Structure formats: C-alpha cells, structure tokens
Amino acid sequence: MSTPELGLPMAVAAPDLPARVRIYEVGARDGLQNEKATVPTEVKAEFVRRLADSGLTTIEATSFVHPKWVPQLADAEQLFPLVSDLGRSSGVHLPVLVPNERGLDRALALGARHVALFASATESFAKANLNRTVDESLAMFEPVVSRAKADKVHVRSYISMCFGDPWEGPVPIHQVVRVCKALMDMGCDELSLGDTIGVATPGHVQTLLAELNEEGVPTSVLGVHFHDTYGQALANTLAALQHGVTTVDASAGGLGGCPYAKSATGNLATEDLVWMLQGLGIDTGVDLARLTATSVWMAERLGRPSPSRTVKALSHKE
Length: 318
Known about the structure:
The chain is an alpha/beta fold. The protein has helices at residues 27-31, 41-53, 76-83, 85-89, 101-109, 123-130, 134-150, 173-185, 202-214, 233-243, 270-279, 288-302, 309-315, and strands at 22-25, 58-59, 62-63, 96-97, 114-120, 154-160, 164-165, 169-170, 190-195, 222-226, 247-250. Helix content is 42%, strand content 14%. The model is unreliable at 259-264 (pLDDT under 50).
C-alpha cells in the first residue's frame, strides 16, 4: 500500500505560509532538453498530456531556440500543435521558451500565448549561453517583450546564475537586482530566479528576495527555480515560501541537469515539492499518485529510474 493511501504525509500547517502554490512545471522543456537522446515527438506530447491530467496547470511545453543549439527540442513546430488544445479545453497554460524575435515569430505563428525569455545575471553565462554581454542580451529582449505585450502575450523571464556562477563564483545581489529591474521595466509579467548550479542557501534566498522588494520588484511577480546539487532545493523553496513567493518551478521526476556543474543532480523534482507542500497543508491542485505514475512512465521511456526520492518511495514494490 502506498503512503498516500495511508493518509500520508499528514498535513500540519506552518505559520505565515501561502495557502496555495502554483507549480510551474519545466520537465517537458528544461528536463528533456538535457537528455542525450532525442525523445520522440509523440512521447513528449503524451508526457505533457499526462502532466496536465495530474492537475498541473502551467506546463512549459518546448523551446523555439534554433535547433542547432537545442537539437532535443528541434520538433517544437510539430509538438506544440499536438498539445495546444489543452489550453482551450482544460485551461492549461503552455509557455514556450523564445530566445529572440525569430523564436517569438515561430511561437506566435502556432498560437502560443505564454512565452519565456532566458536572461543571465552574470557576464560569463550571458557570453556562454547567449554570446552577448548582459546589456546586449537585455537590448535583444526589449523588442521581444514589446511585441509580445502588444499581442497580449504573457511574458516570463528566467534569470540564470542568481546565486552563484561556475566561472565568477558568488554573484553580488545588486547585480541580480539590476537585471531583474531592467526586465520588469521593459514589461515582463513574471521573473524566475534561477539557482542554476544549485549553490543557494536559505538565508541567501531571503536576502535576495528582500532586496528585490526594497528596489521595487514585488514578491507577487517572482518565482523560484532551484537545482538540488547540494541538497538545498527544498530548504530554499521553504525560505522563499516564508517570504511570500507562490510560484515554484519544478521538473517531474527530477528531469534535467546543469551542464556547468558536473555534480548537479538536476531540477527540484515536482513530486518532492508536492510531498512537502501537502505536508504543510498548501494546496497545489496536483494528484501526487498520478504525477508519480507519469514520472515512472517517462523514466521507463528514458531507460533509467527517476532520481526523485518521492517517486522512488511511492513506486517501490515489495
């Protein structure tokens, strides 16, 4: 018998936490783009549908980055039409990653209504990932945001390397704040603070959030995106929740990794997040059993077990 059938985890609320958290599911994009093997389009589409069936309402579907740079997601034009009906029939948001105006054109042509940019808080990562300086990348994003907002498209921006950089080491908080403010000023609706190499700790998280508030960036537009490289992702998430953050990025089954930290264990697993939130009495709308079954299904297609501890625990057979 699985633990949810036993009524576990027991919900015991902690003070001053949100009543509900929106999980921003990134497994179908951020997770699968890190796979060495290319996953068939039909399997990706089924994955998205199963994630939606588990109760997730925001599922990042794919990336309209040039196929040369992310060959695993080269089928974006074929995939998106296979799942876009979820937005119409179930109210599921299906954001897609767009790096520039060309990516935006491709996304809009298929009817995407939620897009995401990929910014950097550090010069080294901006150069490695975008082949631009931080300021040059912000200039590149301006027309993308402007055009998207003119078309009433919701715009999120990821900010990578908010807590540490593999080349530069610790990232000054004022540096992160500057990039976040620039993105907000150009019209982004939402910002996701990325701990790309997984080096954040709870005090650092709360200090960054407080400084952003001090500089006029409200908590209501902030999400957090933690990697579990040093086992801190859930602790950092709790610190963000205590500050009032209500959007948390996670990846079903813990799919994904970080090419810049060889010891990285990938994204925070959605199941591990849901287990903690359920134990805190926080509503997510997610059926943990269905989500776990989906991650087991996907792990079978990838040919390896899920790294998520909750998936392992709930799928264990005596």
